[in-house]
Specification:
The chain is mainly alpha-helical and 240 residues long. The chain has one domain. It is built from 8 helices and no strands. The termini are far apart. 33% of the residues are buried.
């Protein structure tokens, strides 16, 4: 029944293309479908804002990490830990720099207070905390994309149900069964359904894409942490 109404409404809108546009459909909508459209519009703006923010953050992290890795390698090779920390502070958007800076700071601090065996453990705990914090920063906003992607179609579906109800009310009010009696309600249903999908699909795509990015960053941070721990072990062993 619903599918048949959709087909008839689509044919009607096509035949009345000159009189049916977004503005006229909005003016003919009842209150509830308008609220649904407004909610979907807000969700769309928010999701695109998250997409832009994450894209800029990940791009900056990638670029600064490349620069940081090249610069810090020479400083660590020469044993200049203070210089390595300074390089990390100049690349604050780099996820690797944040982790390495924390590890170096923990190593320097622990070297002056605890025994050799505890120095490595202290540095390792500092690196683990730093990786967890940076991971949380990288994932910020992605849960919202997942929520929008999963709920937007149902918000649109709610508008669809309201549009169908309005279509049947139109039949009851006009005492007619022609297409003109249900066209307004079906138009509301079509618009809210389309908007729900239009909001949800980009949010789901972006969530999957950014999640893969975060997983790649996690691997890079874990590798950097292990390499730094090996560096600390070799450095402590050379001093003995």
């Amino acid at each position: 029944m619903v599918a048949t109404l959709y087909v008839h409404a689509a044919l009607f809108l096509q035949s009345q293309a000159t009189s049916w546009d977004l503005r006229s459909m909005w003016s003919s909508m009842s209150t509830l479908p308008r609220i649904v459209v407004a909610i979907l519009f807000i969700l769309s703006i928010y999701s695109f804002g998250v997409m832009i923010d994450r894209a800029l953050m990940y791009s900056a992290a990638r670029k600064q990490s490349r620069v940081f890795v090249q610069q810090v390698a020479g400083a660590l090779k020469e044993g200049k830990l203070d210089e390595a920390i300074a390089i990390a502070e100049r690349n604050k958007k780099s996820h690797i720099a944040k982790v390495v800076a924390t590890g170096l700071s923990e190593f320097q601090s622990a070297s002056q207070q605890v025994t050799d065996s505890d120095v490595i453990e202290a540095a390792k705990r500092g690196l683990e905390r730093s990786v967890a914090i940076v991971h949380a920063e990288m994932k910020r906003g992605l849960s919202a994309l997942a929520t929008i992607g999963s709920t937007a179609p149902f918000v649109g579906l709610f508008g669809t149900v309201v549009g169908i109800l309005n279509a049947f009310k139109g039949i009851e009010t006009s005492k007619a069964t022609g297409l003109s009696a249900v066209a307004g309600g079906i138009a509301e249903a079509l618009v809210t359904t389309a908007l729900g999908l239009l909001v949800a699909v980009p949010a789901v795509w972006a969530y999957n894409y950014f999640t893969n990015k975060v997983e790649a960053f996690d691997v890079e941070m874990d590798n950097s942490s292990m390499e730094l721990i090996n560096y600390f072990i070799l450095r402590r062993g050379a001093k003995k």
